Input
Amino acid sequence: MTQAIADTGFRHGDLGRLIALMTGAEKHGPAATSTLDALWVLYDRVLRVGPGSAGAPERDRFLLSKGHGPMAYYAVLAAKGFFPVEWLSGFGSYDSPLGHHPDRTLVPGVEIGSGSLGHGLPLAVGTVLGLRAQGLDDPAVWVLIGDAELDEGSNHEAIAYAGPAGLERLHTLVIDNDSATHGWRGGIASRFEAAGWSAVTVDGRDHEALYAAYTAPHPGRPHAVVARVEKKF
Output
């Protein structure tokens, strides 16, 4: 399957304006802006999915586990044509499909309902296994988690399983803004590597570094990209 995203005319420089359309009692602004560059590079250059292929069995899957503060996610989806830009101004209102946590039944392109931390990576593991059971070995599965989500034990069970199972089509993007309660000697990437994953740490604002990390070969192993961004205050 080739990349199926149409050129809507929006560029990375437009995302700030799109995010600004979303007003209201949003309490997770840093959680949104920390993911902006990483999400853009994924949707603009890596993921093989677009508005016309959002239901195709062979599409790549993206799961937003870090579902609180989804403004950057919504801005990127709108910029890529998954839903009208006009939806953004209704963000968080009673009759808007764009809630403070994404809802897969309401928002085109959203794969999971998220916001309760610690579920996305286990769901991504299950997605890879489910696709494999259907004979769909080509789609890549990506999941974005926050570094603080690694305080949740469910993620470590998923990490411990996926490495030995050789889930090569599984990719985890960790946005690291130093908000985790716990840490690991050697950094977050070392936790994945110890479980048999391929892992790399990059500047989460450097688009070329992100792209190189996203597309690095990792035969026979799941892949983790730790994207370091400014510290959350």
User: Anything to note?
Assistant: The chain has a mean pLDDT of 91. DSSP finds eight helices and five strands in the chain. The longest strand covers residues 170-176. The first helix runs from residue 15 to 20.
